[in-house]
Amino acid sequence: MNFKPLKGQHHVSAITGNAKDNYDFYTKILGLRLVKKTVNQDDTSVYHLFYADERGNPGTDLTFFEIPNAGRTHYGNNSISTTTLRVPNDEALIYWKDRFDQFQIERDDISTVSGRAALAFRDFEGQRLQLVSDENNQGVAGGKPWDQSPVPVENGVIGLGPVTLTVPDAELTANVLTNVMGFRETRTYSSPSLEQPPIRVFETGEGGTGAEVHLEERVDLPRERPGRGSVHHVAFRVESEEELRKWVEYLKELRMPNSGFVERYYFRSLYFREPNGILFELATDGPGFEGDESFEHLGETLALPPYLEYQREQIEAKIKPLDTKR
Predict the structure, then answer these.
(1) What is the extent of the structural domain holding 27?
(2) Which of 31, 93, 123, 215 could be cross-linked to 149 through a Cys-Cys bond (beta carbons 3.0 to 4.6 Å apart)?
(3) Is 321 exposed, middle or buried (0-12, 13-18, 19+ CB in 10 A)?
(4) Do residues 196 and 216 make contact, with C-beta atoms less than 8 angstroms apart?
C-alpha cells in the first residue's frame, strides 16, 4: 500500500468520573478550550468532552468520557501511562509551577525528560500528565491557544506532546509501531525506575514533540486496572478519508483485528489493539468541530452528530446537565 506517513498525535481520550469537576479543571486551571460537548457515540448515556486549542486543531485534543461509577485506577502495565501537553518554551514551565502551587495541584519539580524541560502533575483524579517545553522543537507545529482562556496565550498549552506506553514486552509494540504504522526509532533515554531498560523513542511524519511515542518496558508491574484517571486510547493523525480507507484495507490484508471504518462526524476513525493490549485509533484531520457550531460558540451546547440527532430528547433526559455557556 502506498501510504502517507501518520502525522503525529491526533487526540488522547481518558476517563473521568465527574464531568463538572473535569470541565472546571481543564478549562479554568489548565486553560484549555472546551471545543465540543457531546456524548460517547458507543454509549450515549455518558458525555464525551473535547478540550483543545482555540478551534480543536488536530493534535491538540485531550478528550474525556464521563463514567460516573468508574472506580479508581490501579496503575500498572499495558497502559498509556503519561499524557504530555506542549507549552511554548522553558519559561512557561515556571509560570505553570507557580500556577499549580496557587491552585494546590499535585506536581513534581521541573526536570529534563529526553532532552526537554518538563513538569509532571496530576489532575483531581490522579490523571498522569506532564507539560513539556517546545522551545527546541523542530517537528510538527503546535496549535494556537484560545485568547479568552484564563491562562495568558504566551504560556498556554499548544497541543499534545509524546505519549508514554508502559508494557511488559516492548519488542511486540515496537514491531507494530515500526513495521505496521511506519514509525522510526530515533533514540533512548534512561528510565526513572532503577534497573529498568532505557525508554525507547519512536517518531512519525515531521517528528518532534507532537509526533513521538515513548515506549517503557516494565516486567515488574501488574496489569493496570483502569478507572477514573486512566487513559482509554491514543489516536494518530491521518491526512484524509482516502488515506484512512487505505489503512482499513492494509490492516485487513495483515489480518489484524480492527474496527473497520468508523464515522465519528467530527473525524473518521479506525481502531485496533497492539499486542500488549493498548488501543490505538487512526483519525482523519477533518472535518473538524465547526460543522454544527460556530467558532465563537464551540462547546456551549450539547452537540450531536446528525445520525444521533433523532435521539436528542432521550439522550438529554438521561444525561446530567452540564453548564458550559460562557
Answers:
(1) 9-318
(2) 31
(3) exposed
(4) yes
Residue 76 CA to residue 278 CA, distance in Å, equals: 12
What is the pTM (predicted TM-score) of this model? 0.97
At 105-153, the pLDDT tens digits run 999 999 999 999 999 999 999 999 999 999 999 999 999 999 999 999 9
CATH code of residue 136: 3.10.180.10
- Strand 231-238 and strand 279-287: the pairing is parallel
> Which of 166, 83, 163, 94 has the alpha carbon at shortest distance from 129?
83
Question: Alpha-carbon distance 221 to 207, whole Å?
Answer: 30
CA distance 87 to 96: 10
Q: Three-state DSSP class for 203?
A: strand
**What is the total count of domains within the chain?**
1
Per-residue pLDDT of 150-206, as tens digits, reads 999 999 999 999 999 999 999 999 999 999 999 999 999 999 887 899 999 999 999
